[in-house]
Design brief:
4-stranded parallel beta sheet, binds iron/sulfur cluster, Rossmann fold
Length: 413
């Protein structure tokens, strides 16, 4: 890429920073107000129920990602290892536990608050992995608050009515337990409103991601990692909807005007697996310099849920929570990836083997090889991790990416 090539900033991101700051300041205020309650929830957990019950909702995985993005995870993982957590287990979990034991949080520097809000309740769903159950267990013991969860059926091929009914039953029981414990009563109309807003934010997010289908792509995976925070942290709020309407309008203008995230885009790449939070800037710059746009990813699509068109909100929650990619079988995942490659006109794919997250890594059982054979598209698999840089070699990975892009160039010739 010529040295003169410049990134075109996304104007909406100026609005995002104060939105995220207000979200954390509100959580901090709620945690110190005896009249308000805070619940911690997994990123694709039943947060709509918690919001509808009046809890402010905090997502610890986001804290794990922040520790990674601030390049400090490795300083805190050993604290969790000393407390008995395996160094090869989820580095979101170990860095988050380690940072709590050390009394450190990146939220202090970013927003001037002491750290994560003290919870009144922790709620998980094992639709993504069982690690969250043990992670939440640590903080439940530490704060002496209840830990509740649902354990949906996993590795699903087809999602059947029986599966949905089972998970709906788990959600209904979860509501009963919370109502009894806290003396609350869920207003079903309010839950329907929250679910409708959650679905609206998710639909807008999906439409934003879809604008990258055009050439040149409007948006990259690395942009997505920044702009996805409302659909994770503020799902069910009007704030998330308002923000995504602004962002979608901007991305639609890019489509209309032919503005690409990578000037002179030449290669279109798919990212499968977790991001590498401490290396986002370097990775983004590398692809930019090679005129390659990472136009789509499984990760950013994880919060693009099916639309809610009215009806039973618990059924929608049950269905969306088990239909997500991470909760599906190999056949479904492979077909999903082929569909994404076609829809986004992908030249080649990268599989990140995140060493501490086998759950969101799909290169371990031959899928990359099968896709390479069946799809006739170059595929690169490399080792790394979401946060723990012990498992990542920058020099080796950058060399591999350059060789991969050369392969794409040869095919174009
Ligand atoms: S899905 Fe992976 S990164 Fe996320 S909590 Fe589970 S093990 Fe950790």
């Amino acid at each position: 890429m010529p040295a003169t090539a410049k990134r075109i900033e996304i104007a909406a991101q100026k609005q995002l920073r104060p939105i995220v700051r207000d979200y954390f300041l509100n959580l901090d205020a709620a945690a110190s107000d005896p009249a308000r309650r805070v619940a911690w929830c997994t990123s694709i957990g039943p947060c709509e129920i918690l919001t509808a019950l009046g809890f402010e909702v905090y997502f610890p995985e986001n804290h794990g990602a922040l520790l990674g993005a601030r390049k400090v995870s490795h300083e805190y993982i050993p604290r969790a290892v000393a407390a008995g957590y395996c160094a090869e287990s989820c580095s979101y979990m170990t860095s988050d536990i380690g940072s709590a034991l050390a009394g450190f949080s990146p939220l202090t520097e970013a927003f001037g608050i002491a750290g994560p809000p003290k919870p009144d309740l922790l709620v998980y769903s094992t639709n993504q992995c069982r690690e969250v159950q043990d992670w939440w267990g640590f903080f439940g013991r530490r704060h002496e608050v209840p830990v509740l969860g649902i354990t949906p059926p996993t590795h699903l091929g087809d999602v059947t009515a029986e599966h949905i009914s089972f998970v709906r039953g788990e959600l209904a029981r979860l509501i009963d337990i919370i109502e009894t414990h806290f003396g609350m009563k869920l207003n079903e109309n309010h839950l329907t409103e929250v679910v409708a807003r959650s679905s609206r934010a998710s639909t807008l997010w999906n439409q934003i991601l879809d604008t990258a289908r055009v050439r040149p792509a409007t948006f990259t995976f690395f942009d997505g990692l920044f702009h996805m925070s409302p659909v994770i942290l503020m799902r069910g709020s009007q704030t998330a909807i308002d923000y995504y309407e602004v962002l979608l309008a901007e991305m639609s203008m890019r489509v209309r005007d032919g503005v690409g995230a990578v000037p002179n885009e030449r290669y279109r790449v798919y990212w499968e697996g977790m991001p590498i939070w401490p290396k986002l800037r370097e990775m983004s710059d590398k692809f930019f310099d090679l005129r390659a746009v990472v136009a789509a990813s499984t990760y950013c699509n994880s919060w693009a849920f099916e639309r809610f068109d009215g009806g039973d909100p618990l059924e929608w929650m049950a269905k969306t929570s088990i239909a997500i990619f991470i909760n599906r079988d190999e056949r479904f995942k492979q077909e999903f990836l082929v569909d994404m490659f076609d829809r986004f006109d992908i030249d080649g794919a990268i599989f990140h083997n995140a060493r501490t997250c086998p759950n969101n890594t799909n290169s371990r059982f031959g899928m990359a090889q099968r896709l390479r054979d069946e799809q006739d598209r170059p595929i690169l698999v490399f080792d790394g991790d979401l946060s723990d840089l012990r498992f990542f070699s920058t020099a080796q990975t950058m060399t591999n990416i350059e060789a991969f892009i050369e392969q794409l160039e040869e095919r174009k010739r």
